[in-house]
Amino acid sequence: MSSQLRDAPIGLRCVISAGNKCFPRLRLNRNVWFKGATLLLTFMAYTCYHMNRKPISVFKNVINRNCSNLVPPPGQDIDPTDETWCDWAPFDHTGSDALLGGLDSSFLFAYAIAMFMSGFVAERVNLRYFLSFGMIFSGIASYFFGLARVLNIHDYSYFVVVQVFGGIVQTTGWPGVVTVVGNWFGKSKRGFIFGVWNSHTSLGNILGTRLASQYVEHDWGLSFIVPGLVMAICGLIIFLFLAPHPSNVGCGRPTHVRESSRLLQPDGSSLSGDQPHQAIGFMEALQIPGVIEFSMSLFFSKLVSYTFLYWLPKYIQNSTGLSPKNSADFSILFDLGGIIGGILAGVLSDYSGMSATTCSGMFVLTVPMLFVYQAYGTENTGTNVLLLMLVGLLVNGPYALITTAISAELGTHHSLEGNSRALATVTAIIDGTGSIGAAVGPFIAGFVAPYGWNNVFYILMAANIMALLFLCRIVVAECRRFLRTRRGTWTA
């Protein structure tokens, strides 16, 4: 093959060359191919992570309910007047909401604490191993929760230990997938790309709800075992096929990770003799402008989102009287709205260049929408569908934008002077802080719900206001920058 042919773009190389004639063959650009595969694999991975978090919200509807209207299974000596025969100890009494809230918090506090360490680990290990083994162990955690049904386990401490283990291994997910995607993609249209890609969160919730609801009324153990097996299999796929960095497969590096004064070999060593950048520390990451503000805003935003994640099916059943399966399926509407919200927030952020202002606008609209949904959402089915999707859109829009495009932007901030190894640490700090809020929200809901769901909604409204306040300084800076840009345009 001639040098001209070797140097030609891959899509224009010849299948047959005869004399001066060249018959081109169209082939997909190698870099584009691997980018598409990376998006698909990381999308699948985090869909599985959320799929395995969702079954416990469906489980809550059958673990403590009035059994007097149910038909006892044949062959069992059960008093049909016993209102608790179908419940599962230790959740078979009036204080079960507090115990279930404790399970949520066990998972989420373990997740939040471990997340701060997970970012440091992710920057120092092969992300293919980090994600694949994290997924396999997460599947095992889900399997062990469902195993309690098979082995007739009623010890509350068993459920707590499984939840803590699950929370720790689930922290492999977010720093891992965001860093991999950040390694492959530059800053152009990042909000839109991440907005579409981040629909894995809502899709995982939907799949987890659908899988769990298929089994929950006759064998709730399978509601955990089946998603766990699916996740473990997908973890094996990640192990076999994921390329965590372009250099692993000989592809070019995206613009934001190219150092201006040096080139790096695939193993990370410098061709110019300079030492490659080292992973930054916790305090260095906190000094990046905007990290603290967005972390605290996500604390309150994720508090709201995860309260819906863990308690929405229970609220729908209590407020509408639907069956456990139907209330779980109905809650999917919140996640469908969340998919639209994540994409819309990304598009608005890309178009305006004002990510904090985009989040704040949605926070402002969320407060009255929560009030309207709580007051009028149960009037009729059509109203419930519309309002629930709007709430999902507004709640998940800012949450998706902060955890994806904004985290990636801060992790490659110009103040780092080209150090691309901050992304996992920054992502872990922001999502770890948000996860503390995610742990607080469902825990509070478990204690407050028995005194009226309206009180839960008041707490969620207050949390949205706090999320808005933490972004005020950045919003003001964005507006000033926008006005300066407009003045420059008008002057020109």
- CATH architecture classification: Up-down Bundle
| N→C terminal distance | 53 Å
Low-confidence stretches: 1-19, 23-27, 255-277, 416-420
| SSE sequence, one letter per element | HEEHHHHHHHHHHHHHHHHHH
Q: Write down how many β-strands occur, each being a DSSP E stretch of 2 or more residues.
A: 2
The total domain count is 1
Secondary-structure content class = mainly alpha
- Which fold name corresponds to the CATH topology? Growth Hormone, Chain: A
CATH superfamily: MFS general substrate transporter like domains
Number of helices: 19
How would you state the average pLDDT, rounded?
80
Which sheet architecture does the biggest sheet show? 2 strands, antiparallel
User: Which of globular, elongated, flat, extended, rod-shaped describes the shape?
Assistant: globular
Radius of gyration: 25 Å
Helix content: 55-70%
Strand order of the largest sheet: 1-2
Query: What's the CATH C level?
Result: Mainly Alpha
Membrane topology: Multi-pass membrane protein
InterPro entries: MFS, MFS_dom, MFS_trans_sf, Sugar_P_transporter
Keywords: Membrane, Sugar transport, Transmembrane, Transmembrane helix, Transport
Main location: membrane
